[in-house]
Amino acid sequence: MSTHSARLAALREQLSQMRLDGFVVPLTDEHMSEYVGAYAQRLAWLTGFQGSAGAAVVLPAEAAIFTDGRYTLQVREQVSADDWQFVGVPDTSIAAWLRDHAPAGARVGYDPWLHTAAWVEEARAALAAAGAELVAVEANPVDAVWPDRPAPSDAVMTVQPDAVAGRSSAAKRADVADWLGSAGADATVIAALDSIAWLLNVRGADVARTPVALAYTIVHADGTADLFVSPDKVTPPVAEHLGNAVRVHDRAAFAAALAGLSGKRVAIDPAFSVAAIAQAVEQGGGTVLPLRDPVIVAKATKNPVEIAGHRAASIRDGAALTRFLRWIAAEAPKGGQTELSAAAQLHRFRAETGVLRDLSFDAISATGPHGAIPHYHVTEESNLAIAPGQLYLIDSGGQYQDGTTDVTRVVPIGAPAAEMRDRFTRVLKGHIALATAVFPRGTTGGQLDALARLPLWQAGLDFAHGTGHGVGSFLSVHEGPARIAKPSYGGTGPSEPLLPGMILSNEPGYYKAGDFGIRIENLLLVVERDLPGGEATMLAFETLTLAPIDRDLIDPALLTEAELMWLNAYHARVADELAPALGGEDLAWLTSRCSPVVR
């Protein structure tokens, strides 16, 4: 029996002991985070799946793992089909699958600290339709059979200085207090880790690649706050920074504090707060107001200091990436380089800036067929040699105190095939269409998504992931609330209006299963723009990312004059802004790769 088969069997035995017939295992933590600490990686431990989004359901006679289109290939590589059914979302939801597969009379368990209230209601109704029952557990059964489960991180918190944050925590909390007054609420629970970090101007190291600390915050109508965090994380400088208006409590006291909000009207974001939070408030005699996290939009609309910081980080990061692109172009054709060695080399170039705090995610270093897996994660077992005739895709980013970066480039190892150049150029055309979009206030990412897909659609092609996600300011590389995507990708994100100051990615792609993958990703800043003769101020995008786009993969005959002008203007800007940060052969290579593309 394989390791993961044995783990599945152990979980089924544990469920039997708990008088449960099934259990739902999401890939999240008690803060509804996308990226979670090692202690919360229950799905990966149970199934072997290494993606960043998914869930599993275990029943006595069958089990299913749920992933979206980004992981269609990856999940089949990493998870045994002997033990698990592969189910695609959003085509099929967990609730719908439970309705169709749970035996009548079954008791299916869930951890109320890992699901939203809306999910609980949907799953409960679906199971009721099947004559089954959804049961909250007090202790997670996966934890009971995970003998070497890591402990939560003990890393200390750090201060994000006002000079980098652009606004003080006191000013941000005053805004929340004003919002509470207008909402008729006494307090709000902030459970999302990046919201807490942004609100209090603190950072942490409890989640790999995301500088946040495991904590909860309750903000009151007078602008004071209660922070629930392991006391050992609060160093004297952090305590001094927080001041008397932020009271620090042990994280273990959070549930009791919720129960103590008796008679209070408490705003709780149903999308970013687990069901257990609202349940604790209501059981303690408080009234829950299901309102959006008051921090989420303010955090997403960067202030001038944050924008200036990201521009500086983009130059620094772009220079490191340029050094890498020159290196990979020279070294890969010689042989001896692998997906892991290339990712490590790029990490070294970023580290040589002297100010890299972390990567913003594990690099997607993918050659040949692995490039066709949009969120491929290289391991020692999957590591491939980078060989001539392949396309090498590198999607990576850095965490700097003044900005978070995310960029994807594709490099041909040797002369690319005509099909590769055609597909790459179509992806580039979509990338340019989105980068040059001008649109009125109120426009959503879902309304812009088709611009990036049209050149592919015209050839009968598409890609099975969103076109763009928000990016934080020395925070999460995937930040809400806005997304550029089809309505079926990313929940309500595609329906969120874009606002000046938001930073989003622009990353259309194309993936040929078993052969190659293409993605071109830059980060965009939403800006205001007045057009000659226009009657209203419009919105547009400023491209922030600075790195050459591989000219050997471009078929100029497929580009319009306007697209060619954009490409050459972009490359001229890349050369101009990165030149001071480079020298010698790196600078000479950059200059040659940014020379005008002509028909």
UniProtKB/TrEMBL annotation:
Residues 538-596 form the Peptidase M24 C-terminal domain. This is X-Pro aminopeptidase. Keywords: Aminopeptidase, Hydrolase, Metal-binding, Protease. GO terms for molecular function: metal ion binding; metalloaminopeptidase activity. InterPro entries: Creatin/AminoP/Spt16_N, Creatinase/aminopeptidase-like, Creatinase_N, Pept_M24, Pept_M24B, Peptidase_M24_C, X-Pro_aminopeptidase_P. Belongs to the peptidase M24B family. It comes from the Bacteria. Pfam families: Creatinase_N, Creatinase_N_2, Peptidase_M24, Peptidase_M24_C. Residues 7-138 form the Creatinase N-terminal domain. It comes from Sphingomonas ginsenosidimutans.
